[in-house]
Amino acid sequence: MLETISPTKRRRASAPPQSSLFDRAGVRAEIAALHTDGQRAGESPRAAVLSILRAALDRGRARARAALEANGRGLACAGQLAHIEDELIAAIFHYVVTYLHPPIAGAPEKPFAIAAVGGYGRSTLAPGSDIDLLFLLDKEPGERCQAIVQSTLYLLWDLGQKVGHSVRSIEECLEEALADFTVRTALLEARMLMGDAKLFETMRTRFEREIVHGSGAEFVAAKLAERDARIARAGRSRYLVEPNVKDGKGGLRDLNTLFWIAKYVYEVREASELVAAGLFSKAEYRLFCRCEDFLWRVRCHLHFMTGRAEERLSFDLQLPIASRLGYSERVGLASVERFMKHYFLIAKDVGDLTAIVCAALEERQAKPMAMLDRFGPFLPPPASIAAGDFAIENGRITVAGLDAFEANPVNLIKLFWVADRNGLAIHPDATRLVTRSLKRIDAKLRADPEANLLFLDILTSRNTPEIVLRLMNEAGVLGRFVPDFGRIVALMQFNMYHHYTVDEHLLRTVGNLADMEQNRYSGEHPLASEILQTISNRTALIVASFLHDIAKGRVEDHSIAGARVAREVCPRLGLSDAETETVAWLIENHLVMSDTAQRRDLGDRQTIVTFAKKVQTLERLKMLFVLTVCDIRAVGPGVWNHWKAELMRTLYWETEMVLAGGHSTIDRRRRVAQAQLELRRGLPNWSDLDFEAYAQRHPPAYWLKADLDQQILHAKLLNMTEVEMRAPVTHIDIEPLRGVTELTVIAPDSPHLLSIIAGACAASSANIVDAQVFTTTDGMALDTIVVSREFDFDEDELRRASRIAFAVENALAGEITLTDMVAARVGSAGARQKTFKVHPEVTLDNSLSNRFTVVEVSGLDRPGLLFDLTTAISELDLNIGSAHIATFGEKAADVFYVSDNEGTKITEPVRQEAVRRKILHIFDQPKGESAPKSARK
């Protein structure tokens, strides 16, 4: 006869009394009453039972949520939800075996059991988690057993449960586990719920004896490979600013993997047994539990808030969760930044636990030894290491004695120096001793010349400085040795532009510089790689890359504050006065080159002159160029692209010419003549008379700004409008290497032209990243619109670009109403509007260009913003000479070079104020709103 077994006790989260969450006795009584007194009016017996079960389930989950919001215990909440599910399944099982498929008199009973597996087997569930069940049957199950399984599943599904299940015999379980590590892992967590306890225990005993025993190395290799693949999908860094709480690096799945591996190798059944087994100390096991509880707290809040199995801690969810968890604002840090800093510190702790487990497994020869350098092995370490304060154990550097740091605190830095010089990973025992000795990193050690020289050697190493600095950071050494760095450890910037925490961004910048120096990026950054080899003071450049964002999170401008920090830190590290000033200048100006390249008209002579005055020397130009490339590339995946590279190269070469001697007015005329000569050669079929007439249609600035390919294209398109077809004419250029698509439009010039083109692009969901505007002397506009590429394959991108071009042509012909189309395309973006606050700013500057007033606009990005901005500018009777479109996450930073109808600058204060008010009004009453990732212009 089938026997119901009470659910086993929680492993790491004590369950509250059953009556407080799920009244199993009350549910049974209600169901029994149905079958005694008859069904409810208008309901079938099954529907009435479902109604009873659903009400009990909803009550239990509501109480679990209330408890979470009251006491904030995440692991307890996960245990309560699992307990509720246990009680629900028990109630369903009782109903099925009592009323739907009762025992058949005289028929033999087949052994049968239901077990929780996977995450549910650990007695933890998130509100949106799947329920993983194993129905364990005899070799030849009877019809009743099969009917019980089917009825149980149908009831769970009808209650809206997401059930993953398997129906197997013991032999089938073992066969599947042998062939599939996912099944093996699920069975490792198997927990008896109800049914025949002897059958379940037989399965588990055979599983441990026949599958687990002796196969530790195989299992570890499989789970670590699975972890690597999972982290690659979720994001390789544990410091991503929108982390995946479950699958990201440093998340819950990492803790699960540690437990699976440790449990498998040490052949224990409970996590607490790992202390007795010698894997964890009591303090480390408590850390394991603290990390688990925090991550479960965040995950449960995520699921409850969204009503689904949401695992990504996105920007729009970070704010309300920070509030729910009780974080408040502090000087320089918003509540959400404090919450996320705590999150990343927890992720770091998970990484520390991972290192402990992996080292222990290496000692048991359950996994390959780790290497320090990801690019290749070093030479064998010298035997002299073992003669001093350090030794080599299992291929890792460690301390020779427990008093190594007490006897000489400089060894706290030297340990990492030795690791870098010899390509050795650091033994976790040494790392543990480091963390217990951090108090020895005091003012005396920070002033020690040897310690500072060792640190500078690590920072400027030609081996793997990023990796070693990250090890120092995770051990807590870096933040203690450089206290200003300690202030930005795990600090996130609450915006959509930066993908990593500030400390991770700085380490990646140093890593980019080291990789570039070793020619690992020569194909991707040929100019920067070439320039780097010619820089005379690499030490100053590297220190600047390490410190350039050191003052983030302060009230004052981080570039100015960072320069002040550099003037304090650099002398301590042994840099000369001249080197210190170079580092301070680079930090204070580390955003200038990027800002100029992306937000200024590089064809305007005044732009180059102004930038050259700021830079002053060729050496500074080289250093700033390399630092800017490494900095942008360290912001996050996809932030650096070929379009930005081209802008940066153009600015570099134009400025280099000025700093190397400059150009006089005569030089400028010669450059115009040379450009015309090259175009003449590129149009061999044109007559001299035709070419001369054509050349007169363009002002001198055109010949200096447009490259030869553009000039040839423009000549052919303009000629086409005269002999083949009337304007407007559009041309598409797919440029996969630059990551953009160019749309060239030839049309009669008008103040509304750029606005119409921008509106057509917005209506087509095309994201404009730059715009170049030329006008011939006879009133024809040559506008080049650069949009972000959307598709990998050229054929797909060409079809998309053709749709954009068609929309532009229809808009210019007046065949579509842009305002309605943009509004329809924009949709709703309340999430961004509520999540991010960007104070709009509008500035007008007449010193940045000799011909135009430069209007700089910044504010919260949204679809159709460029359409609204250009419409407003045209309504002000201003002509746009060029537009430069930049987006930094949720922030739009657009620049327009404008003049009035007379071709002069906007100088009257009253007119300037009218321009500011008109543009600011766009942000007060946005035409549309967007989701965070949608195209805006």
Automatic annotation (TrEMBL):
Domain HD, chain residue ranges per copy: 502-624
Regulation: Uridylyltransferase (UTase) activity is inhibited by glutamine, while glutamine activates uridylyl-removing (UR) activity.
Domain ACT: 742-823, 854-933
Protein name: Bifunctional uridylyltransferase/uridylyl-removing enzyme
SMART domains, A to Z: HDc
EC numbers on record: 2.7.7.59, 3.1.4.-
Keyword annotations of the record: Hydrolase, Magnesium, Multifunctional enzyme, Nitrogen fixation, Nucleotidyltransferase, Repeat, Transferase
Needed cofactors: Mg(2+)
CDD domains on file: ACT_ACR-UUR-like_2, ACT_UUR-like_1, HDc, NT_GlnE_GlnD_like
Residues annotated as transmembrane: none
GO molecular function: [protein-PII] uridylyltransferase activity; phosphoric diester hydrolase activity
Region of interest: Disordered: 1-20
Annotated family: Belongs to the GlnD family.
Residue span of region Uridylyltransferase: 1-384
Primary role: Modifies, by uridylylation and deuridylylation, the PII regulatory proteins (GlnB and homologs), in response to the nitrogen status of the cell that GlnD senses through the glutamine level. Under low glutamine levels, catalyzes the conversion of the PII proteins and UTP to PII-UMP and PPi, while under higher glutamine levels, GlnD hydrolyzes PII-UMP to PII and UMP (deuridylylation). Thus, controls uridylylation state and activity of the PII proteins, and plays an important role in the regulation of nitrogen fixation and metabolism.
Originating gene: glnD
Residues in the signal sequence: none
Pfam family for this entry, one: GlnD_UR_UTase
UniProt GO BP: nitrogen fixation; regulation of nitrogen utilization
Organism whose genome encodes this protein: Methylocella silvestris (strain DSM 15510 / CIP 108128 / LMG 27833 / NCIMB 13906 / BL2)
Domain notes: Has four distinct domains: an N-terminal nucleotidyltransferase (NT) domain responsible for UTase activity, a central HD domain that encodes UR activity, and two C-terminal ACT domains that seem to have a role in glutamine sensing.
Catalytic activity entry: [protein-PII]-uridylyl-L-tyrosine + H2O = [protein-PII]-L-tyrosine + UMP + H(+); [protein-PII]-L-tyrosine + UTP = [protein-PII]-uridylyl-L-tyrosine + diphosphate
Chain segments annotated as coiled-coil in the UniProt record: none
Highest taxon, organism lineage: Bacteria
